[in-house]
Amino acid sequence: MYQYTEFDRQFVRQRAAQYRDQLERWQAGKITEDEFRPLRLQNGWYVQRYAPMLRVAVPYGEISSAQIRVLARIAREYDEPEAEVYRNALATQGALGTTYLPSHYAHFTTRTNVQFNWIPLSKSADVMDLLASVGMHGIQTSGNCIRNTTTDERAGIAVDEIVDPRPYAEILRQWTTLHPEFAFLPRKFKIAVSGAAEDRAATGWHDVGLHLVKNDAGEIGYHVLVGGGMGRTPVIGTVIRELLPWNQIMNYLEAVVRVYNRFGRRDNKYKARIKILVKAEGQRYFDEVEEEFRQIVEIDGGPHTIPQAEFDRVAASFVPPALAARPPRDAEQANAALQRQVESNPAFARWLQRNVAEHKNPALRAVTLSFKRVGQAPGDASADQLDALAELVDRFSAGEARVTHDQNVVLPWVHAEELFDLWQAARDLGLASANVHLLTDMIACPGGDLCALANARSLPIAAAITERYQDLDELDDIGDIGLHISGCINSCGHHHSGHIGILGVDKDGKEWYQVTLGGSDGSTLSGDAVAGKVIGPSFSAAEVPDVIEAVLTTYRDQRESGETFIRTLRRVGLDPFKAAANAARIKVAEPA
Asked: Global pTM?
């Protein structure tokens, strides 16, 4: 993984020191709350329903064991609500229906960030210093700026990879960090980069989606999409360039974002995202970008053209770790041993099939550890789990892991001959659920339990569905399916892209839920990116699990041999599923 330079390390340390000064001046009354608010937000500090929430950046998902250990320490020592705050939160459970108030936890988000929900602002500067000690920070995880750039969790190791996107993503990280012209955009701005045949980065759903491709001559370039996004108005990005030369990406993004900065709406935050501008202006926006790009290159001399030497410097940090070059045991013996383990351990065989992916290096595998289990919110990790995770990462994956937008963790450098040992160790920690891409591998935001913006709780819905579907044979029979849950229209749970999406809504001060079907993130499993469609009036919390069961039963009744949920849905249409969902509502509403 990329090794930060001394400049990077000094920059992060100075930013932490700057934040401490800002915090102390606010505590002393030298700056007002209104003055302090943008300063803390620029460093990832929100104030949520009950307490501050810290969002820590994990650029393109890569994280080291040392960084995981610091996150564990923060969870253990700092993620603890003040007694009065916690009492107040408990006192409001009846009014808000809060059921999930964990502390000493970190939360993996859909943007490959890490969040904490209970750190008092009085201790926030100490936390920033700890993060800086391992090159971490919360810079640009909030605010109307270019946010954390994301990519494929298998970047650099995927068998279907065309170009490794990590050096390109790192260059974009360096360029976008504190870019002076883009520090106050009309609204937040998100970029995703993919370099594989399968789009595992959901690029169509981003303000800018970038696909690294090669033409017939072997030249590398970007297939550029612009104007995607979720929220109140779900929009899939539109192709603006078929093949942009790789070294021009920053000049081109400068044009894309500069035109957005110039014409994007600032009078209404709900209409301020670039997707609204692109949708409203269409070709005019594209023409403005092309003209701006021409001027940047021809008149300004292309100041952000990436020199080959600079790309080579960055790319050199992404060489495989030493263990990848370690000669494996005799291949025949290793395969025979693995086969014996599979035959004698059905649970291991199931995990191997579901959680382990092929690797560019035939001796290695990419392993997904599932952070989806009964009694724990999707993506949550306790301090003890984080410490244990760091041990696994050191022992089996050369000290490197990847946070995924599905709220799991991938170990990218696992020797095939060590898979059984890893499975046993992960199983003992409760991280070996063989459910990747199955129903219980769901995405869910924190929702109304913790977030001040939410209209309804996400986590009790996730828990109810998880508890109902614990039979792995049943889950395997249902097959690959994406269930995404958001507590409000801001779509942090990516409900629009779920094969089944659940959205919390407020109806007369009560929690209700809309169900959407047919969404896709653009992966091979899902097909082209598309927003799901609402299947009827909203449902009560008590009705949702039965509605989901009715939808799944309809799929199992309607499917053809080998057909996944999303393919059955597209073949037969929404009507049978709508009818089943409404019938489930009526059944729940009937008196006992």
From this structure: 0.96
